[in-house]
Specification:
Length: about 280
């Protein structure tokens, strides 16, 4: 069952899993021609092996048809150049029709039977006349697909403030809803510029450690909680969720940092000034 399932990566981080019934020998980085809707498409082998069998796949898998020839690869590269021309033409047509939409990317299906135009828009756009114009010019199937700003960042790619490639264009498959509550739970300053990614939405990585912070904060005292210790009555002013240490302030000049386990032996005071 060697290479029975293979994940193929296409332009704009679009990827799908295909069957390899003819058992072509592939390795990561190889090109492959696959079945597409009413035609053929060409992509790059992104993943193979037993790990793919564990992935949840919906619907019937299409097949890998064959390995591309040198002529196929030349045609594939020419499609990339044609996409640039189609992008410029479509943008001018959008202006001509006065449509409130932003063209993001253009993708030719390998066999040239379909061209997909990806765009973003704040509202629903009536692009029927635009499709007619494009179909008249190219005489192939035209698809206009509206995507969100996070999908736009995924297709275009780039680097985050961490210096690494965007998570959405490398390994994220789905986008989770993210709110400022995620930042509050991690004691992060609510600065939109620092909390937003290239797409202008809240950083996807705010979700990565959220469960850990929730678990820690359930057992650690909140900022504002008061404790009676041998040094006096102290107020929690800082909580380190990683080292599980708590800073108690007795006066502006007197503070001490205690392990949470040690603090749990002292009396916790209740009252309007105490934290949760």
């Amino acid at each position: 069952r060697l290479n029975m399932l293979i994940e193929i990566l296409f332009k704009g981080e679009r990827r799908d899993i295909y069957k390899n019934p003819q058992q072509f020998p592939f390795k990561i980085g190889d090109y492959a021609i696959v079945e597409a809707e009413k035609g053929e498409d060409l992509g790059v082998v992104n993943q193979l092996g037993s790990m793919l069998e564990r992935k949840k796949v919906e619907g019937e898998l299409r097949n890998i048809i064959r390995k591309p020839t040198l002529k196929d690869l030349d045609y594939y590269r020419s499609n990339r150049k044609r996409e640039k021309d189609a992008y410029r033409l479509c943008r001018s047509k959008i202006v001509d029709h006065g449509l409130d939409m932003k063209l993001v990317d253009v993708e030719y299906q390998f066999d040239g039977n379909k061209i997909t135009f990806y765009f973003t828009a704040e509202k629903r756009v009536d692009f029927r006349e635009l499709v007619k114009d494009l179909a008249t010019i190219y005489k192939v199937r035209i698809e206009l697909r509206q995507i969100g700003v996070r999908d736009e960042a995924k297709r275009i790619g780039g680097y985050g403030s961490c210096g690494r490639n965007l998570c959405c264009s490398t390994f994220l498959k789905e986008f989770e809803p993210i709110t400022t509550q995620c930042a509050k739970e991690q004691n992060l300053p609510l600065n939109p510029q620092k909390l937003s990614g290239l797409c202008g939405r809240l950083l996807c990585c705010l979700m990565y450690e959220r469960d850990f912070y929730r678990q820690q904060m359930e057992k650690l005292p909140a900022v504002g909680a008061r404790y009676k210790t041998p040094a006096g009555i102290g107020v929690v002013t800082n909580v380190d969720v990683f080292s599980e240490k708590v800073t108690l302030s007795y006066t502006p000049e007197k503070q001490e940092c205690l392990p949470y386990q040690e603090l749990s032996h002292y009396e916790r005071l209740t009252g309007p000034e105490s934290g949760k």
